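Subject: Predicted fold for GPR180/TMEM145 transmembrane domain-containing protein, 214 residues

User T.R. writes:
Posting the sequence so we have a shared reference for the thread.
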Amino acid sequence: MTNGPPGDYWHEHFSADEFYILPVIMAFTVAYSFLFLGIVICTIELKSRQLLHTTYKIFVFSVLIQLFGIVVVSSCYLKLAVSGFLSTKMKRFGLMLMGTSETSFVLLLLLLAKGYTVTRGTLPLTASVKLTIFMCLYSVTYVSIFIYEAKVFDPGEVLYLYESPAGYALISLRIIAWCMFVYFTIFTLKHYPEKVSNFKQGLIYHQRFRYSEI
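User M.O. replies:
I've generated the structure tokens; pasting them so everyone works from the same file.
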């Protein structure tokens, strides 16, 4: 059973809820490729000025892993469009790469909100411990989603990866992370008001918590 005539590349082998996945993810592949090219140029410039901070390295890692994940998932859906076969293991691997990217980006935002590399070179021990515990919990919860999907999910009944106890827990952790980001930012600006200009972009980046894929 197909959802389009033979040769209909965009619809034939896709279910109704998957019709627009392939063009969207291909567009993201192109966008992230250009983004990574720009990052490489900026990295070379920052390295020449000895300004290649840890936070920027985390950002580069996040974008690179996200690009790899998108490429893997894109290849899976391209194969589905051509042959009608979807490699669930490869797709899951691609999604795990994207999850790793998101986790590292959340860590980056929380570090910047604490003022790391902006107002200070090191974090207090208590802050480091709290962040470590939270990110470990975040990572374990994310991994639990994929384990739950592999062992329990019925593809015929479950459409979205987050329709699981672990998925709901991750959504809750994202909300907590957003609250932590806002609190850390306010606390940092209270003690370093002269750094307001450095945190203006945070108004854009904090939307990552609100509009993460659910």
